[in-house]
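User: I'm putting together a teaching handout on how sequence relates to shape, and I'd like one worked example. Could you take Outer membrane receptor proteins, mostly Fe transport from Reichenbachiella agariperforans, show the sequence you're using, and then write out its predicted structure as tokens right after it?

Assistant: Happy to. First the sequence, then the structure tokens directly below it.
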Amino acid sequence: MKFFTILKFGLVVFALLVGNLSFSQSKIQLSGQTIDEEGLGVPFSNIAVLALADSSIVSGTVSDYDGNYRMTVPAGKYHIRLSYIGYKTMLLNNQDLSTDLNLGQVVLQSDVKRMEEVVIESRKYDVEVRPGVKAFNVGASPASESSNALDMLQNIPSTSVGIDDEVSFRGRQVAIFIDGVESDVANILEQIPASEIESIEVISTPSAKYDVKNGESVINVVLKKGNRQGTFANAALGVGNDNYKRANANGKWRNNQFEIGGGTSQKWDSRLDNGDSYRTSYSEDTTQQDQYYAGRNDMYNQYYHFKTQYRMNEDNLIQLNASSGINNFNPEKEFDVEYTNDEVLDRTLDRSRKGEDQRHWFWGNFLFKQAFREGKSELRARVKYGYSDKDDEFVFLDSTFNADGSFREVSRLDQINDKMTGDIRQRYSVDYEHGLGDNYRVEIGAAYWLRNSERIYDYSTYHENNGWEKDTNRSNQYIYAEKVWTTYGQFNGTVVGLESLSYSLGVRAEHTSLDPQAVGIEESYLNQYWRLMPSIQLAYQMDESQSLSFNYSTKNKAPNYYRLNPFVTYYSPTAISYGNPYLKPQSINALELSHDKTWNGDQVYLSNSVYYKQVKDADIRYRFEDENEIVNFTYTNVDAAASLGWELIANFRPIEQLRINTSMNLSNAAYTTYNSMQEQLRRRGTNFSSKSSLEYQLPMGFSTQLTMNYFSQQLTAQGYNEPYYFADFVMRQKLLDDKLSVSMKFADLLHSWERNSVVDQSDTFASANTYQRNSVRYYLTLSYRFSKLKWASDS
């Protein structure tokens, strides 16, 4: 759908809906908040206004995330019913609604069921749905003590984790948020213990208010928090095979106004991997290179976090969050390479690579919130600062042998020092929400983002007489500067007289300046551009058990800084990598229609979504072989990439102790590319993935969880990734009044984790690659809670 058509449609819808404002004066406003026994808001609770005569539903609505609700009803007398799964229904009889009425805070009491020896308490839905967002509550998962955030993402529908732990959603890059703040720290998900996670939110089609830089969809990791007062502390120790060891400690203290807390995670691990690649070159003579390798990477990761916040009163909040990490890697790899010319072995090569990689990073986030007009309006100001550096040093030794096995020469003894001397990121933003009456809300905001980084790449060669000498032709310095100015406006509302229909119309304007600088090259690669990005969201609550939603958004995605680096990185004598400073930004249009339905409370949950995504000027990793039979890895824009798909999410709870979750995603993907003769090529393929988990709660605090993942052949711009699957199994036992938790996790239970890829769309070569790493891993974790938060009313 074209941009201007969408914009015209949005303006018409906007005009029609705003016209409802004129009718609001003839109605009565009913408002209030549903809270639980602990004083926390009950999100998405159902509020129904019932006729006195027959208790038929006159009107209804659903509370927001904090339990607040507002609705318009005709003047009169009614019964009011407030309910939510896991809580006792509250019925307020014979309420006089002749004038506006605020019910204040209504407490919903938990509904506790006892079944033989098992006590089942009220709990959150496994999946919570609100306009544009699906929240998967993973906090109570048996795998939480023995996993990290990256592990938990493996079980989120349509999400996949690649070879280098990169996260994608429906086959495209995703932006990672931590508590609503975007983070682009490498490997941060691997460093956050899953025991600290409350839920994982998936925003597949972000609206205009989301300033998304690093992806097209959003995955927001929500950490555990709450309004409870007192002291809390816990610690965990874990051991496993392949040198795995982990220690976590967390604590916090909180009263009515002040909170302070922090924690640390220390992790030791070894990644063992192996693989092979087969490459055939098509030139005057057909040559083939077969490579086999095995490696080991010993890792030590440190993660620290700190949080403090202060409330002067109920209307404001000052919050400071800080996190930092130190990552140490010691990779070693051994390669065996065979070179064949017209099926005759020409020579072999033994390659050894050893190195040391150390990284430091820090993120600080300051937030100020101020509410106005009895909570109807809110101002938020945020400052975000990030710093990271990297020092990666490794040595290559290549020894060449003749076809008969006799030694030929030491063909390479090189040393590479790859440094990121300082990657500094800053973001300043202000957002304001303003209520217009009881049915409408306006959101506006502005932000300024800047990034400055410097990479120094030193390449040295060893000479017998002179020792190490710097190769000035291969050494380089890359400086990158980025500035983004952005502002947005969004209008949200419900249709008067039909409060179950809500909508959101928004637009974001953005100016971007990208300045990749290749030191020593006079050419300027400065790229500046404007983008206008609209969004539309419609949500209809059909009844208490089902909803229908439609989302449309346009996003602009700038190329990543390393993809703009024109300098060559030398991996081996037969492969090089470099960026493309002329990459264009991607323009992404996304549509999604979803239907969500529950039966018998949350005993059965079913979600169906149909989505379409089109990417103009999609940037891809492009591979080709040059005249020297060296494979070049670089990046280029292709005319378009598109996908049309269907997603199914189903959760079943046939009995209270058993939970079955499954999801499937079927999509058709297409790429429009060109060959070396500039002839247009269209590639199309069908992708399928499924994820299933079975969780069983046994008596006496024992629980198990089995998860299974399958991915079919996945189309890429120049080839495809072959199918793969894997399964994990977890057992957990709670002891000592639930203070002690003992869990055992088996990862890659079927010894099946293997990634194979094929490049078959190239005029110069074809290749097939296989990659494997640690399989059948086990982790034993002990977690102990030393103290527990108390409610303000506790003695």
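A couple of points you could highlight for students: Helices lie at 3-18, 149-153, 188-191. Residues 126 and 137 are 5 Å apart (CA to CA).
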